[in-house]
Specification:
By secondary structure, the chain is α/β, with parallel strands linked by helices. The chain has 13 helices and 15 strands. It has helices spanning 8-13, 41-53, 64-83, 98-111, 136-145, 165-168, 191-200, 252-257, 292-308, 310-329, 358-367, 380-385, 402-418, and strands at 29-30, 92-95, 123-127, 148-152, 173-179, 204-208, 231-235, 246-250, 268-271, 276-278, 334-337, 348-353, 370-371, 373-375, 391-395. The strands form four sheets. A seven-stranded mixed beta sheet has the order 2-8-7-6-5-3-4, with helices on both faces. The chain has a four-stranded antiparallel beta sheet with strand order 11-12-15-14, covered by helices on one side. Strands 1-13 form a two-stranded parallel sheet.
Length: 422
């Protein structure tokens, strides 16, 4: 099959969990990578090595272990900056996850003064396909500030409806926040085009790259001028890294203008009983002891992906996604939500199977060793747009094989027979 990673079987051996046999003797078929990716041995080993040999708090201790830990933590920042080709490594901020990163931006914007201040009459623009973590923080902000929340709708094939972009992006728009790749529909959005339009009216552009970073090459330096977002976030556990670590990249001018988020150690310049002054970025937004081991694991994870190459990973995802779409089309009663063109989407495919509840589908597939997700995928508005409460979602990644897609299709046909739907 054209596009598959040529070293696919070698790559699979890097992920020890993929060798598991589940109950009933079925081999694990992991098709839930949009939820969380599996971890290669190098990430596991790197984290264990640091705990065993270098564990210490960073930027505080003057002893050798403290120096080693600080060096490893800051090296991870350098690796992440290189991964997204950030203009400056100081613009990379470590957070707990993408959700915290988005809440950091929304909250600090609600406290901001000057050009970034948001108040009554201002508007925040999102989309109907967002993950809840890119909806709720903006709802909270607009409710608190008396601003208005607006959104792009969706077309019948699951793309953003940009027909009214000039009505939605106006001189009242202060923030445009959107996902690069939908976690439910798989849609790849034209973020550069939307960013350029938003910057014409002076809006701050925030991009949720949680589903993009694992599979699309990100080059912030190449996104020159108006097409470059002001803020980009993603989470570590979807890029073969650990949980508990996220990334917020922001343009220095924006980060410098935003007020501090959490107060505490490390984010200060000086503290007196009367007042405090704050450190520069990135430390301004990294109060307290950070997720040290997790950041170091993330550094190893993005190194691993860079060694394989994001272009090659993207081609593999497109090939597997196209094969999966063909397979799903062969199962009677199946309806895919989102674009049917593999080139227009990522590796997450949500679908319905007529006559069977998504939770039942997932349970039957699980009995055959196949891991998928069932539910609303933290995207209830997108489900409501297509008139469904929930869906089943399969999601592939760089370690997914055509044989695993075949197992899914066989499992769905078995599910239809099990529930006697015709």
């Amino acid at each position: 099959m054209d596009g598959l990673l040529p070293e696919l079987e070698v790559i699979r051996k890097d992920f020890p969990i993929l060798e598991r046999q589940l109950a009933g003797g079925f081999p694990l078929v992991y098709l839930d990578s949009a939820n969380t990716s599996q971890k290669p041995q190098i990430v596991i080993d790197t984290m264990v090595d640091h705990l065993e040999r270098h564990n210490a708090n960073i930027s505080r201790a003057m002893h050798q272990l403290g120096s080693e830990s600080t060096e490893a933590f800051e090296a991870a920042r350098d690796r992440v900056a290189a991964f997204i080709k950030a203009p400056s490594r100081d613009e990379v901020i470590f957070t707990k996850n993408a959700t915290e990163a988005l809440n950091l931006v929304a909250n600090t914007l609600s406290w901001a003064t000057g050009d970034l201040a948001i108040g009554a009459g201002d508007e925040v623009l999102i989309t109907e396909m967002e993950h809840h973590s890119n909806i709720v923080p903006w709802q909270l902000l607009t409710e608190r500030k008396g601003a208005t929340l607006r959104w792009f709708g969706l077309t019948e094939d699951g793309r953003l409806d940009l027909s009214n972009i000039d009505e939605l992006i106006t001189e009242r728009t202060k923030v445009v926040s959107l996902t690069w790749v939908s976690n439910m529909l798989g849609t790849i959005n034209p973020v550069a085009e939307i960013a350029a339009r938003a910057h014409e009216v002076g809006a701050v552009v925030v991009v949720d790259a949680s589903q993009a970073a694992p599979q699309l090459p990100i080059d912030l330096q190449a996104m020159e001028g108006a097409s470059r977002p002001d803020v980009l976030v993603f989470t570590g556990h979807k890029v073969v890294g650990p949980t508990g670590i996220g990334v917020l990249w922001g343009r220095r001018e924006v980060l410098d203008a935003l007020p501090a988020f959490h107060g505490g150690g490390e984010m200060i310049e000086t503290v007196t009983m009367q007042r405090s002054t704050y450190a520069g970025i990135p430390h301004k937004f990294e109060a307290g002891t950070p997720p040290i081991i997790e950041a170091i694991g993330l550094g190893a994870a993005v190194d691993y992906l860079d060694c394989i190459g994001l272009d090659a990973i993207h081609a593999h995802e497109q090939a597997i996604t196209g094969y999966a779409l063909q397979g799903l089309a062969s199962v009677p009663g199946t309806r895919v939500l989102g674009p049917l063109d593999a080139a227009s989407r990522g590796g997450a495919i949500s679908f319905e199977l007529a006559g069977v509840h998504p939770h039942d589908i997932a349970q039957v597939l699980d009995s055959r060793g196949i891991a998928v997700r069932a539910g609303h995928h933290c995207a209830k508005p997108a489900h409501a747009r297509f008139g469904v409460q929930a869906s089943t979602r399969m999601s592939s990644y760089l370690y997914t094989t055509p044989a695993e897609i075949d197992a899914l299709i066989d499992g769905l046909n078995y599910t239809r027979a099990y529930f006697k739907v015709g």
